Every structure is written in C-alpha cells, then in structure tokens.
Amino acid sequence: MLVIRGATVYPGSGPPRQVDVGVADGKIAAVGGELSGDVVEADGLWLCPGFIDVHAHSALRSYEEPLLTEALSQGVTTQVICPDGLAPAPVAAGRWAERRDYLRALEGPGPEEWPWTTFAEYLDDLDATRPVISLVPSIGHGAVRDTVIGGERRPATREELEEMRREVRAGFEAGATSLSFGLVYFPGAHADTEELVAVAEVAAAFGAPLVPHVRNEGAGLLEAIDEMLEVSRRSGAALHVSHLKSLAEESLIEPLLERLEAADGVTFDQYPYGAGCTLLASLLPAWAQEDGAAATLARLRDPDALARIAHDVEHGLPAWENVLGTLGPERIVADGESIADRGGEPVETVAELLLESELGVQMIMHYASEAAVRKIAAHPLMLLGSDGIFGAKPHPRVAGSAARFLGRFCLREDLLAPEEAIARLTARAADRFGLADRGRIEVGKRADLVLLDPATYVDTATYESPLSLAEGVAGGWVAGERAWAESRPTGARAGGVAR
Ligand SMILES: [Zn+2]
C-alpha cells in the first residue's frame, strides 16, 4: 500500500482532516488509522482529490502530447472534453477533413487521417493514445448536426431530428456523460430551439446535463440564457452553462446570476480571466460561415462578401453577438498582436489572417474587468472550466486556470474558503458530470490525488508567457500511479477515456 502521511486532507466535500491516506490497486484503500506501506511524507501539504476541469479542448491533444503537462502540473487529473458542441466525432464518411479544418485552431489536428466515423470509434482511438489524465467525453450537438445535415443553414426535417436523436443516444451509450452545445459555432448555430429540445430529451433520458455555449454572450446574453433555461425545462434535462461571462455590459452580470439562482439545479463554469479565446473565424456573421470551412474561405476572397461582412460588423445583425463590433479591434489579439495594431481595415485584416492560416488561427479577446471575473468566481454555483486551448501562443488559462482559481483567488486573495474552492474542483464537479468513481477522498474511490503546498501553489502563466507552468504541486496520482513528481511528469499514463 502507498501511504500519504501527515497531510491536511481535503476530502472533496466537508471540512479538512489530519489523517493518513492509503492507496492500493488504483483506489483509495484507507482514510485514517494506523497505516503502513510505502510512505510519502506530506507534512505541511494539502492532499485533495485530483482536480476536475469541466471544459477542456483536449479532444485531440493527446495525439501530440499525451502527458497534457499544462493540466497535470496544476493538479488536474480529469477533464471533460468535446465542449461547445464541437467534437471530432461522430463525423460523416468523407467529411473528416472539413471537420478537422474547422476544429484545428481549437482542438489541434489530431492524427494525420481520422480513422473513425462513430463516437465510439473515436473514443477507442483516443484511448489508445494513453493520455496521462482521464478524459470524460461530451456528445456534441454541433458534431451530430454536421453528421446528419452537413453545414446547411436550415431547420432539421422530422427524419433528421430522429436521426440526430439516435446519434446523441449512441454518444451516451458510448460513454458521454453530458450533451454539449455551441450555438455560436457551425453548424450548431443553425439549430432552432425546437431542435435543441428534441436532442435534449435524449440527455434527460440518460440523466445527463445540457452544457451549452449559449447563442449570445454579448448584448443578447439574457435572452440566450433564457433559451437554454427553456430547453432545460421542456426537456427535463439539467443545465450547466459553459464559461459564464458578459462580453458586452458588465451590468448584465447581476441579472444573469439572479436568473441562474432562480432556476432549479443550474450550475455554470468559468475560466478565471478577463479575456476569452476562440476561433478568429467567430468574428464572422453566420451567413459568412455557412456550408463549412471551404465555403467560408471562398467568401473571404470575395470583395463583395468582405464589404457585406464589414457592413454587418458596423451595424450588427439581429441576435448576433458581433464580437468585433462589440469589443473593437483594439481588444482582439491574434498571435500576440491586436487587430488594431496590425493596421488596415479590421475586417480585411481578419480576412487575411484567416486566409493565410486556412481558418487555423485563434484570437484572444479582452472583455471583462478583474472585478467582474471575481464576482462570477465567488458565486457558489461556479465550477472550474479552463476552456484550455493548446497552441504556440495560447491563452494562459490552459496552464493556469485551476491554480489561479485556488492558488490566487482563494489562497492569496481570500475570495472564498479553501474547502469551498476545493469542493468545486472535485466533488461538486464529479456530481454534476456523473462521475461517481472520483472527486472524493473516500475508501473505494479512484485514487486520483493531488498533493499541494498551500504556501506556493499559484498560476504563473501570463498573456506574455502563456505556457509557464503552475507552481506548488508536490505530487499527482492518477488511478494510484504517480504521474507528477519533482515539478515534472513521471511518464506514467494511467488516465485514458473515462467510460
Ligand atoms: Zn465555448
């Protein structure tokens, strides 16, 4: 038996205790009592269940880097993947290259050729990469719509709705524990509310939550939240809102939180930063992204289409969040330089970047004050979702979110109590995403554990040095195997796809 001795144990829910913890056969074998075995001395350190990041763009990362060091270094041992309705599967035969081109800036390219079509085949293939941590899949509505309908901007027929429901069911049968939506991404954004209800009913039958990137995080935020509250109510599925924020007015945050509190059983996640990150292509209106990546690129080469995009950015369109028009080119950064600093007409500059990269470029958009970020982080319904996107110059949230939330907001700034912050990173996240085998230090649970030094645990990633790893994690175990020691991965890869 492995014995972790002398640590202050935060069990995931409930107050900390000074007890020894024993691990055997990948599980927690003992909590408290006289334990003997291979001892890890942990005086002065905190032992917690491994952290659960409920929103991560790691669907294909493990093909490049199965050690997922940015996550593991923060004590994260489980990530929920395929958020925002976006996923590498299911995918219609012959459409995988198109899907890859659209997803690449968020998820990376994956293997040279995608050998899967079904969700189950993809999960088997991903599992074979042997990721160091556990990856918990969502079934993505956008991926399902693309498989059944393709990129067309139109309502689904009755037959297509039935087929989409079958695909969602197959996703849950393959191991998904939530249904994600990306109602600003394509083709997910083409869905009407009736379609969302139809697929949400399948999630309800599996007792799984709906996890939406809502249709509008700008001026239309409250209406967009109301749509998902309606979908949740009508379908009977619980609601967990992804990366809660207000891109436009901070005055919307108060009524937003009130709405979520008033609804039954709603939760949300947040990455603890005042800037977001997504596809640069998300600056384009829906009509310009119709019919997939190749059609989008063709429009960007057409001067008439560019003029129409510039007009729409200036004047807006009904219900469109219009990030470029809302934030302005000064606050949108691609590859380390703002759209404004790059010079030229903003829409033309964006088009050039998209054409050069064949849509494969991210943007970081600065929208919120630090006070607004903390107001959401302090809320008891908040869970931690890094929204981590890998890349050469990514958003620092990929390497900093958990450590920023617990190490900075909680331990250094006293924004909330450690017991509360740790519960959100562990037991409460497990409960929300149906992960009964983890998230608590209790006998019989999976031995996913993080040992941290509360005096030094903190994020160091910044916009300038986004890949700078968190400090203060003294040890990490995944299914009882030591995966993190002496500030680096040990090479153990006991994670995999959790099903
Ligand atoms: Zn999102």
Topology:
Elements: E1 2-5, E2 8-9, E3 17-18, E4 21-24, E5 27-31, E6 38-41, E7 46-49, E8 51-56, H1 61-64, H2 69-72, E9 76-81, H3 96-107, H4 119-127, E10 134-137, E11 139-140, H5 141-149, H6 158-174, E12 179-182, H7 193-205, E13 210-213, H8 221-235, E14 240-241, H9 253-262, E15 267-270, E16 275-279, H10 293-300, H11 303-315, H12 323-327, E17 332-334, E18 337-338, H13 346-357, E19 362-366, H14 370-377, E20 382-384, H15 397-412, H16 418-425, H17 427-432, E21 449-452, E22 473-478, E23 481-485, E24 488-489, E25 496-497
Parallel strand pairs: 1-6, 2-7, 8-9, 9-10, 10-25, 11-12, 12-13, 14-15, 15-20
Antiparallel strand pairs: 1-4, 2-3, 4-5, 7-21, 16-19, 17-18, 17-19, 21-22, 22-23, 23-24
Helix pairs in contact: 5-6, 6-7, 7-8, 11-13, 15-16
Describe the structure using short key phrases.
499 residues, alpha/beta, TIM Barrel, 2 domains, seven-stranded mixed sheet, four-stranded mixed sheet, 17 helices, globular, binds zinc ion
What this model shows, in words?
34% of the residues lie in helices and 19% in strands. A seven-stranded mixed beta sheet has the order 3-2-7-21-22-23-24, with no helix packed on it. By secondary structure, it is α/β, with parallel strands linked by helices. β2 (8-9) and β3 form a beta hairpin. The chain has two domains: 49-274 and 373-437, TIM Barrel; 279-366, no CATH class. The longest helix has 17 residues, at 158-174. The protein binds zinc ion (ZN). Zinc ion is lined by residues 84, 213, 242-243.
